[in-house]
């Protein structure tokens, strides 16, 4: 019983030690049989590059027990197994990787060209914005100076308006005084004229009487 247990442990250890991945060689197809000879039943055909789990190897028979990806177990000739993929499969994988790298490289080159173009456009835009900013700064300085001058002009204009209003008030006062003087002059001339007329009338009344007296005096002589 003890010997059976030891044999069982050795079998498990051997199985665990050989639980490795193996690949079918460049041979197009390899037969997977139910036993360790070409007399055993063919279970299936394994194509080149098929990945298999190695369970154990029997150097005496030249066969290895394997397990497929879907769990099927069988025996194949050991020399048709390799520790790595076949050169053809590796070449195909390398070719795919190279094509993928080339595609990625092209994508990166296109992206680089796009980013370069965007960088040129951004540089041009930045240059234009800098020029526009400088122009706006100059315009702002000019407007600020004009605003300062405008404030000064507005203050001066306010002073001039006040002076103008004062002159208008003075002019109105002089106009009123002139009108008053004119009315007074007209009134004085009217009075003088009336006095002259009245004086003339008085003289006109007095002179006949004087003449009549002279005539009377002459008649008495």
Tell me what you see in this structure.
With 221 residues, the chain is α+β, with helices and mostly antiparallel strands. The protein has a domain at 2-85: SH3 type barrels (Roll). It has two helices and seven strands. A five-stranded antiparallel sheet has the order 6-5-4-1-7, with helices on one face. A two-stranded antiparallel sheet has the order 2-3. Strand 4 (51-58) and strand 5 (63-67) form a beta hairpin. The longest helix has 134 residues, at 87-220. The radius of gyration is 68 Å and the shape is rod-shaped.
Please tell me the overall pLDDT.
79
**Through-space gap between termini:** 219 Å
Q: Give the CATH class of the domain at 2-85.
A: Mainly Beta
> Percent helix among the residues?
55-70%
Number of strand elements: 7
Overall geometric form: rod-shaped
Query: What's the order of the H and E elements?
Result: HEEEEEEEH
Q: Can you say what the CATH homologous superfamily of the domain at 2-85 is?
A: SH3 Domains
Task: Assess the beta-strand content as a share of residues.
Answer: 15-25%
Quickly give the CATH architecture of the domain at 2-85: Roll
Supply the number of helical segments: 2
Radius of gyration: 68 Å
Structural class: alpha+beta
Largest sheet: 5 strands, antiparallel
Low-confidence spans: 1-10, 12-18
Spatially, the strands of the biggest sheet line up as: 6-5-4-1-7
CATH topology of the domain at 2-85: SH3 type barrels
């Amino acid at each position: 019983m003890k010997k059976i247990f030891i044999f069982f442990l050795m079998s498990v250890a051997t199985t665990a030690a050989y639980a490795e991945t193996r690949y079918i060689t460049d041979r197009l197809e390899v037969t997977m049989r139910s036993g360790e000879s070409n007399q055993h039943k063919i279970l299936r055909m394994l194509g080149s590059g098929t990945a298999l789990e190695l369970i154990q190897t029997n150097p005496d028979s030249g066969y290895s027990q394997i397990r497929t990806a879907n769990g099927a177990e069988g025996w194949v000739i050991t020399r048709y197994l390799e520790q790595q993929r076949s050169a053809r499969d590796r070449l195909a994988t390398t070719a795919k990787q190279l094509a993928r790298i080339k595609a990625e490289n092209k994508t990166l080159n296109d992206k680089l060209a796009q980013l370069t173009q965007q960088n040129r456009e951004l540089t041009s835009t930045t240059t234009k914005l800098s020029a526009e900013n400088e122009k706006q700064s100059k315009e702002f300085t000019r407007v600020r100076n004009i605003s300062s001058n405008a404030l000064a002009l507005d203050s001066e204009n306010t002073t001039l308006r006040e002076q103008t209003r004062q002159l208008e008030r003075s002019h109105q006062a002089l106009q009123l005084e002139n009108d008053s003087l004119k009315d007074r002059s007209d009134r004085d001339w009217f009075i003088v004229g009336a006095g002259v007329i009245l004086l003339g009338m008085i003289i006109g009344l007095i002179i006949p009487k004087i003449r009549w007296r002279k005539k009377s005096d002459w008649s008495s002589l």
